[in-house]
Amino acid sequence: MDLFPVVTIDLTDPKLVPEKPFYKRTRAALQSLEKFNVIINWEAHEESVCPSSVAKFFFDIGYKVKLCAPKFQSHIVYSVNTPTLDEATVEESDVVDFVEWLGMVCLDGHFSEDLNAYANQYTTPEPNVALGQVRTLQWRGFFHSHQIMKLIDYVREFNQNQDKLWSAVYVQGFSDAPVIEAKEEQSYYTNGDNGNICIFKKSHCWFCKFRRCAKQYK
Hints:
Strand order of the largest sheet: 3-6-7
Oligomer: single chain
Number of helices: 4
Strand content: 15-25%
Order of helices and strands: HHEHEHEEEEE
């Protein structure tokens, strides 16, 4: 499990101008690389600018361009019990249990409230309350941090305004995403084992971070 080699090039560096040694070394290093694909997420600064303008720019200078749309899917879990988070008495273990339960919901796992149920069934942690349904919305794609923050803000406001029991947002990197947070690289081809989750309940928020083990496997 190797880490991505993360390289940062500051395009505003005053030394990064044609004919200067730093520019020449940088260009030579980039030209020495083999052919590779690049994923770009670009947000226009003005609504009047078409988001696909960046695709046209690279196409016009000779690059092959493919527009990639996010994939969306949704499912509903009916008649399920949800763990409760009491703002006054909640402990770290309660949040961990809730996140584990939420993972089962996202996977559309099989729930059973029978403590003697078969081993592959999942029992909701105590204390819990009955819910009519839980809806999961899932987007797969390459998203900018600004877009993720907009979603988090929307979900937080939705939870408060609609008086929902809770709402949550889970963000996880994918295999070819170099980082999910500044200077925290993904492990190559392990499906993005770095993740973040925000759980909203009225005016309260619990934020959880999942980070890969620092151990390197040979």
